[in-house]
Every structure is written in C-alpha cells, then in structure tokens.
C-alpha cells in the first residue's frame, strides 16, 4: 500500500445542505453536541503531538460543512504554520465561500474542492434538499471567488446519480476546457444508503469516460493528484478530469489516508467500520500522547488488512453513521 500520510479531518457534522447521498431523507441524524466535538486546541494537540510525529503531513478539512466551524480561519492558520505541513486543503459546498475565500487563502489554505453536482439550478436544488430556497447562484459565486483568489488547483466534485444529473456530464466536463479547473466525477457510494436510488445508484467511471471520449477524445494527464482519482484531460484543455471509482474499480492499494471525525474517532477505512480509535476521550481521560501514537502506529500496521477485509460492508445493511457524520 501507499505510505499513509494524509488525514481527512471533519470539523463539524452539521451542514447547511441536505444532499440525498450524504444525508438521506428520513435518516435519523443525531448531531454531535458542542461539548463532544474536538475543540480547536484538542485538534491542534493531536496534530502536533500525535499525527505529525507518526508521519502525517497532508491534511484536508471537511465536514458536514467546514465553513460552519467557528474559528475556522485561525484554525487554518495554525495548521498551515506547522513546519511539517506539506499540504492543507478543504472540501466545501461553497455556499459561504464567497465571503471567506480571501481570508482562508491568506491564512494558508491553497487547495480547495467545491461540490457542484449540477449546472442546472432546479436539479441542484433537488439534490441538496433546498427546502424551497435556491442556493445554486451563491455556490457559483463561491466558486468564482475561489478562482479569483487563485486557489490552485480548484476542484469541482460531482457525484453522478443516474437519472438525476448524469445527462450533464458533458457540460460539466466542458468547464475544464477554457479554465484551469479540475472536475472530479465521483461514483455514488451507498454508505448506509444502499436503498437510496434502488438499483440505479451509480454509473461506472469507464462509462463516463466513454461519453466524454466520444465527444472530444480523452488522454491520460501528466497531472497526478494526492488521492485515488484517475486523471484524464480533454485534448487542449487547461484543466483536468478526475474519476473516483470506489464502486467499480477497487483502489485500496493506493489508499494513503485515514479519517478523523468531528468527535475524535479515527477511522482507517471509509468503506467499513473496523479498527476505529476514540482519540478525543483518550485525550480527555489523560491517555498520554505517546500511547495515542502507539495506538495509531498499530492501526497503520494493520490498515492493509482493514482495507481489503469486508471492503464493501459499509455499502449494505446497518451502518452507524451517514457520510456527513464520517466526513467523506
């Protein structure tokens, strides 16, 4: 397996959207009480005293929606100031980004992924569960603000859902032709939601590539990402197209990440619930940072087994958390 040096950090489990694939309609979601969230100081202690010493140098801030986290700009500045931090990025829905993009960039954030599942406001509103309030334009404003601030790369995440937004694949891919934008098509992962779209849950990345190839042609890109995406490019385009194929093409051997939930649970694999460690309560109950390091080092050692064992157990049956609660 790849060296595991990339930590996805969920800052909050709440979100101002309710996307079907992340927070399915009817799902009982028990939000984390404020006192049970990792505080900023606890998170910084874990990063500085536990994660960095065992080899983590790349960090991505997620949610829920990370822009809802109080003190976010200061937190970004603190993480980016660690000498060992090689990369600091964020995934956001972009709704609040227009007013925050410049401050986040000045604090040290350089890479950003923004969810954009549709270019049609009606389809977009359907997917995000807008409850009667259109939000597409504010997200688009956030994307433009990030572009003007010069986030590089600026990535747009698209979860492709058959019969909902798959007819927009070519329009979304075209965004990469004249702009240095990087569109990432993601196969819908039915984490605890295996009945959500019946048997129409996801379209394979290869099928999407065939559609794009037929329109423009498609070449493998010289650009490589930090994660599991296979990168391609429309000939002559400024940006790239990435395909994250967790359902149709197993990429466990390329996994370089773990996930830290907003309430301090370290999770070695998104697709099953094996091997989790409760770091928050360990820290609050006086467990030494040396012992927490030892626990993580042990988990790193068995991560290959966890990745391949019951790899798809989280996509069927009972699952304790939705995607929004895990941090994606």
Describe, in short, the structure shown.
The chain has 328 residues and is an alpha/beta fold.
Protein model, in words:
This protein is an alpha/beta fold and 328 residues long. 31% of the residues lie in helices and 17% in strands. The protein has helices at residues 40-51, 72-81, 101-107, 121-128, 136-149, 169-178, 205-216, 279-284, 289-308, 323-326; strands at residues 6-10, 58-62, 87-92, 111-115, 154-160, 181-187, 219-220, 230-233, 240-244, 257-260, 265-267, 277-278. The protein is globular, with a radius of gyration of 19 Å. The two termini are 20 Å apart.
Distance N terminus to C terminus?
Answer: 20 Å
* Rg for CA atoms: 19 Å
- How many beta strands in the DSSP annotation? 12
Overall pLDDT metric: 87
Strand order of the largest sheet: 7-8-9-6-5-4-3-2-1-10-11-12
Order of helices and strands: EHEHEHEHHEHEHEEEEEEHHH
Structural class: alpha/beta
Relative helix content: 25-40%
């Amino acid at each position: 397996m790849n060296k595991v040096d990339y930590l996805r950090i969920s800052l909050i489990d709440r979100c101002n959207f309710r996307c079907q694939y992340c927070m399915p309609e009817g799902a009982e979601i028990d939000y984390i009480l404020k006192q049970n969230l990792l505080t900023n100081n606890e998170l910084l202690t874990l990063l500085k005293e536990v994660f960095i010493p065992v080899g983590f140098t790349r960090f991505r801030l997620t949610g829920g929606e990370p822009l809802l986290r109080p003190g976010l700009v200061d937190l970004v500045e603190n993480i980016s100031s660690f000498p060992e931090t090689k990369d600091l990025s964020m995934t956001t829905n972009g709704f609040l980004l227009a007013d925050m993009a410049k401050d986040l960039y000045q604090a040290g954030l350089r890479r950003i992924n923004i969810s954009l599942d549709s270019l049609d406001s009606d389809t977009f509103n359907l997917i995000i569960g807008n409850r009667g309030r259109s939000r597409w334009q504010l997200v688009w404003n956030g994307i433009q603000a990030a572009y003007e601030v010069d986030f590089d790369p600026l990535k747009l995440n698209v979860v492709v859902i058959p019969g909902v937004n798959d007819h927009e694949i070519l329009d979304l891919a075209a965004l990469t032709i004249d702009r240095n934008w990087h569109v990432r098509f993601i196969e819908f992962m039915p984490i605890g939601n295996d009945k959500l779209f019946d048997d129409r849950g996801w379209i394979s990345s290869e099928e999407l590539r065939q559609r794009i190839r037929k329109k423009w042609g498609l070449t493998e890109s010289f650009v490589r990402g930090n994660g599991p995406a296979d990168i391609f490019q429309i000939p002559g385009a400024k940006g790239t197209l990435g395909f994250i194929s967790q359902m149709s093409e197993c990429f466990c051997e390329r996994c370089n990440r773990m996930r830290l939930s907003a309430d301090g649970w370290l999770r070695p694999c998104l697709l099953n619930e094996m091997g989790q460690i409760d770091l928050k309560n360990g820290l609050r109950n006086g467990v030494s940072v040396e012992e927490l390091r030892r626990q993580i080092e042990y988990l790193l050692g068995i991560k290959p087994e966890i990745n391949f064992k019951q790899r798809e157990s989280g996509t069927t049956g009972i699952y304790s958390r939705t995607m929004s609660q895990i941090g994606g």
